[in-house]
Each structure stands twice: as C-alpha cells, then as structure tokens.
Dinucleotide-binding enzyme
Amino acid sequence: MRIGIVGTGHVGGTLARLFSKAGHEVVVANSRGPETLRGLTEELDGRVRAATVEEAARFGEVVVVSVPFGRHTEVPADPMSGKTVIDTGNYYPERDGHYPELDEGRTTSSELLQRHLGGARLVKTFNTMRWDHLREYGRQSSAMQRYGMPVSGDDVDAKRRVSALIEQVGFEPVDAGGLADGRRQQPGSPLYLADLTGGELHERLGAP
Ligand SMILES: NC(=O)c1ccc[n+]([C@@H]2O[C@H](COP(=O)([O-])OP(=O)(O)OC[C@H]3O[C@@H](n4cnc5c(N)ncnc54)[C@H](OP(=O)(O)O)[C@@H]3O)[C@@H](O)[C@H]2O)c1
C-alpha cells in the first residue's frame, strides 16, 4: 500500500520504519522540507522517500497525520479528501495552546482535525503508546499476547483498513467506537500510556 506520513518526528518516524519494514511504500514529510529527512531515508536504505507535505499527502492511499495538535490547521486538507487518515495526535495545552472547547470537554482533538480536513475519513490510533514502546512492542508480541491499539473513527471501511495495518506491525486493533468516543483514549484516560494487551483493552473499553 502507498502510505504518506505528514509529521515525521518520534511517532511519524517510528511508523515510517514499521510500515516500510512491513513492505509498504512510504513517503515522509515534515515542516522543514525533504532534505532535513535525509538521515531517516538513508537509514531505511531508499525504502522510504522524503517529499513535501503536499506530495506525501497526495501519494498516500492512507495518510498519517502526526504533528503537534497546535499545528493541525497547517496541514493541507485538499490532498486528503476522501482518503483514510490516521490521527496519532494528542492535545497538550502547555505545548499546543489552549482550546476552550477541548478544555471544557465539548469535543475532541480528533473531531477538530476531522473538521479541518473535511472529506477525509479519520481514524484515531497509535496515540496512546509512547513512541519508543511503539517501536519495540510490536515485534516483541506473540500470537497469544499482543499489545492492543484502540481504534476510533466514524468510517467503518477506514477503520478496517487501518486495523489491518495495525495487525501487520504486530499490534491488536481494538474497536473503540466513533470519533467522539476517542475521548476514551486521550491523555488522562485510563488507557493512555497504559500498554495494555488486546484482551485487557477490550475489557477496559467494554461496549463502545
Ligand atoms: N512522542 C510520543 O511518544 C507520542 C506518542 C503518541 C502520540 N503522540 C502525539 O503524536 C503527535 C506527534 O508527536 P511526536 O512526538 O512524533 O512529535 P515530534 O517528535 O515533535 O514531531 C512532530 C513532527 O511534526 C512535524 N510538523 C510540525 N508542524 C508541521 C506542519 N505544519 N506540517 C508538516 N509537519 C509538521 C515536525 O516537523 P519539523 O520538525 O520539520 O517541524 C515533526 O516532524 C503529537 O500530537 C503527540 O502528542 C506522541
């Protein structure tokens, strides 16, 4: 599959490594330009290409958005229209600035990203695990005991597609409901940074 990654830091860079090792074609982008990602593309030996944000977003059949939430409105919406988009983002007011609607719990960061991206089919996942655990834990899993990854979103097909990718990199996707239910996987929630197995995650989530 062709995967574009917009935001290639701790999480985006880790996903670039995992997805390319799983055999996908990956194009990465950050805010400073493709030349600043040479270290990563050299490490991955030409299996990952760096491009502009616009190019990475157009390239992907699935696009990962992994930027600090406070910068989400800088991400171009047009090239992601109609596409499955993975949102790894979390809202940290001390980093991102205050959003009253989030501070008051009236909506979620994913719903605000969805509003900005319009026609994209957003799926929130990979946001609850520290990036270095994400790098290691998939390959440490056994068929009997995999770490779980909550998956929330309003588009059933997009969730199915993202769930298949999660399985390919060694985690167990666990349906966490619609995008509004994504609040159950936000910072401060019992799932956040908890590193639960798939079974434990199912138990904690109960019915969406
Ligand atoms: N760190 C974790 O363990 C972790 C775990 C789960 C979820 N998250 C969440 O995932 C998101 C990314 O976290 P991170 O730790 O990977 O952040 P990070 O290491 O700071 O990387 C952020 C990336 O976003 C890029 N970026 C910023 N503004 C951009 C823009 N307008 N267009 C394109 N790229 C842009 C940055 O590019 P430049 O460097 O060129 O500016 C950088 O590549 C955050 O919402 C974070 O809360 C983090």
User: Anything to note?
Assistant: The pocket of NAP is lined by residues 6-12, 29-32, 53, 66-69, 71, 74-75, 88-90, 127, 130-131 (CB under 6 Å).
